[in-house]
Structure formats: structure tokens, C-alpha cells
Amino acid sequence: MKKTIAIIIAAIMILSCISAAAVSAASDPTFTVNGKTYSAKIGSVVTYTVNMTVPEKIENGQFIIYYPGDVLTVKEVKFGSLVGSPVVNYTEGVANEIDFNFSNYEGYDFTTKQMLVAVSFTVSAAGTGTVEVSKKPGEVIVCSLDDKDITDKASFEEVVTGASSGSEKKANTLKVTAKTKSVKAKDLKKKTVTVKKVFTVSKAQGSVTVSKVKKGSDSKIYKKVTVKKNGSVVIKKGKYAKKTYKIKISVKAKGNSGYKSKTVSKVLKIKVK
User: Fold this and answer.
1) Is this prediction's pTM over 0.85?
2) What single DSSP character describes residue 137?
3) How many angstroms separate the CA atoms of 197 and 17, rounded?
4) Rounded CA separation 52/116 (Å)
5) Which of 5, 103, 4, 118 is nearest to 54 (CA)?
6) Is 161 helix (H, G, I), strand (E, B) or coil?
């Protein structure tokens, strides 16, 4: 039981590291650690740092971390100053396993958050996999100074760097296209005219708003038109010179939980003839 403290900590640390590194490069593969998804490219290096907190001093510990060796390669392992130089065994290839254990009868004081370990991985090949800390009895254990198993009292803060979090929002896919449309001057002289399909909005992520932009629009028509989200332009009844009028619009897609907001500007052209 006295070799148990390191097992839980290292396992968690490597778990994160691997998760970030394990992302396959060919199509920005993803890797999940503790319910969070990360992505990285082949050849990139991801680092997983684990900080540990335990309500009382501990004497020893050990942990085992399993990872997809066909995707990730261990580059470097650094332990916090409290841990020093623990016994470390790397078994790469078939087992894809990293074992750590350390002990000190004088104890380790993790009652305040301290860095346990930081593991760096190189993403070596495309693919996906699972990185996890062993849940088997005796493989992940944290022991107190009186040799009591207090694994359930240890808490870990995991920080992944060098990889993109799946929770990060993607660029909005909003697209706006515009066409030149014609309307007869004699019709406008008699009534308000709605010109359809002057512009189209597609692939927007989130709600869409459309507004006129004064700068870039012809002043003689700016106040007399209304633009709608369906791509129509409503022109108020009036006397208009026969020419092509420009109306600048701003289209904004608000975005959502997975996509950022985006704004696209376009110049619409209405030819009065």
C-alpha cells in the first residue's frame, strides 16, 4: 500500500498529455481526456500538466497510465519539486504504458496545490485512441503518512497546452452573395416596389441580422430602402433617376455554442431603368 501515491497522479497527468497528443494529424483528429476533446497535428508536441491537492501529507504513491503508442510518443516527463526523482518505467510499443512510483517517510505536502508532473508527447501518427489512468486496485493509490489509502481524497487539476480544445469555437461558415437587380422607374413612381433575391444568405451559424450601411451606399436611395433577411429590398414609392444605385449592407451571423460570430459586408446594386 505504501507505494500508492504516485500511481494516481501520474496516471491522470499522462492521461491529459496523451489526450492532447493523440490527435491524428491527417484530419485534425480528436482525443478526449476527462470528457474534454483536444486536437493536434502530426509532429506537434502537447504537454499535459497535473497539479495535485490532498488534505493531508502523503508518504507514497504510484500510478499507471495507458496510452495509444501507435499515435503518441513520450517526449519528456518532468516532475514537480516535491516529487523530485521518482522511479519511472516506460513500456512503449505493445503495452503502451508508463508507470511511476515514489515514497518518502518524511512525507510530501500537497495540502496546497502543487505540480505533480508534466508529460510532453509528440503526435507521431494519424489515428485516435484513449488515454486513461488505470482503475485497477493497487495501480492508482495515494497513501497518507500512516499508510492509509486516501486516494479518494486527492484532487487533480489538469492543464493541456499545445493542443486545441474541442470546446473552442470554429469560424462561422456564413456566406453572402449579391446580384444586380432591375426595377422600372415608372413602377416606382406609382408604388413601393419589393425587389426579391437581391442577395442570399447561406450556411449561417446562429441567428442572422441584416442592416444598411450608410457609408458605401448612394445617399439618394439610402433612406428610401429597407433590406430584409430573406434577401429582398423594399424601395419606397418615388421619383428616381434612371441609374444603378448602390446599397451597402452588413450581414451578421450571431454564432452558437460551436461557432464564432461573423459579419459580412456586401454592396447591392439596383438598376432603375
Assistant:
1) no
2) T
3) 51
4) 6
5) 5
6) strand
Whether 69 and 61 have beta carbons less than 8 Å apart is answered as no
DSSP state of 80: -
Other CB atoms within 10 Å distance of the CB of residue 144: 19
Q: Which residues contact 256 (CB under 8 A, 6 or more apart)?
A: 205, 206
CB neighbour class for 98 (10 Å; exposed up to 12, middle 13-18, buried from 19): buried
How deeply is 179 buried, as exposed, middle or buried, from its count of CB atoms within 10 A (0-12, 13-18, 19+)? exposed
- Alpha-carbon distance of 147 to 60, in angstroms, equals 8
- Which value, in Å, is the radius of gyration of the alpha carbons in the chain? 31
Name every residue whose Cβ is closer than 8 Å to that of residue 109 and which is 6 or more positions away in sequence: 57, 82
C-alpha to C-alpha distance for 177 and 200, rounded to whole angstroms = 5
Strand order across the 164-165 sheet = 30-33, 36-39, 164-165
Nearest CA among 180, 175, 186, 189 for reference residue 233? 180
Place of cell 482503475: 135
State yes or no: pLDDT of 87 exceeds 90.
no
- Give the pLDDT confidence of 209-242 residue by residue, as tens digits: 999 999 999 999 999 999 999 999 999 999 999 9
Contacts of 3 (CB under 8 A, 6+ apart): 60, 61, 62, 101, 103, 141, 143
